[in-house]
Amino acid sequence: MTNLDAWAAQQPDSPNRSEALRRLVEIALTSATGVRPKSDTQRQRARDMADKAIDKIADSTASAEEQADRKRQLVKGPGEFQKVRRDRTRK
Fold first, then answer.
1. What is the largest distance, in Å, between two alpha-carbon atoms of the chain?
2. Higher model confidence: residue 86 or residue 27?
3. Over 60: is that where the pLDDT of 91 sits?
């Protein structure tokens, strides 16, 4: 928390911790940092890693169709975050 407190102290209005954290999250979600994978190979590797991680936590008692549906929902992500994802085109 010391880094957070130091950042907050540098702000003109010296926000409290919760406000400072909210601002930093907002900055992270709206900034174009270029963190996205840059090549198709890196994107595919990230997809494969996510696929394996999801398979490890899958409910083996669910049907294959239900597991696939759950995996799609995890990969798609919550609706409130879909509009900030930079890897998907906006409709």
1. 55
2. 27
3. no
Q: Which sign, positive or negative, has the C-alpha torsion 66, 80, 51, 90?
A: positive
Average pLDDT for residues 15-43, to the nearest whole number? 78
- B/e letters for 6-35, b = 16+ CB within 10 Å, e = fewer, are eebeeeeeeeeeeebeeeeeeeeeeeeeee
**Residue appearing with tokens 């992500």:** 77
Q: Answer whether 17's CB lies under 8 Å from 4's CB.
A: yes
Query: Hey, CA dihedral for 78, 84, 87, 91, is it positive or negative?
Result: positive
The single residue listed with the structure tokens 């963190």 is: 35
Helix, strand or coil for residue 70? helix
For the chain, the average pLDDT equals 80
pTM: 0.42
Residue 35's nearest CA partner among 86, 88, 90, 89 is 86
Mean pLDDT of 46-68: 87
